[in-house]
Amino acid sequence: MKNRIIHLFIYVVVACSMALGQYKEGNRIVTLSKYYLKPTRTVEDGSREERTKLFDENRKKMDIRDNLLFSSNVLYHYLSGKSDEVLVLDEWNSLMDADESIKTRGDRRKKGWPTKKTREEFQKKHGKYWAGGHTDVGNYELETKMLKRRKKKMKENTLIVIQRFTMAPMSSIEGGSGEERDRLTQEWFDKVVMKDDRVLSQMTLNHYWSGSAGGSDGWPVLFVTEFASMEDLLDEDLSKLLEAGWPDEKKRKEFQDKHRAYWGHYIHDDLGIYWNNVKQQKTAK
Question: pTM higher than 0.85, yes or no?
Answer without folding.
Answer: yes
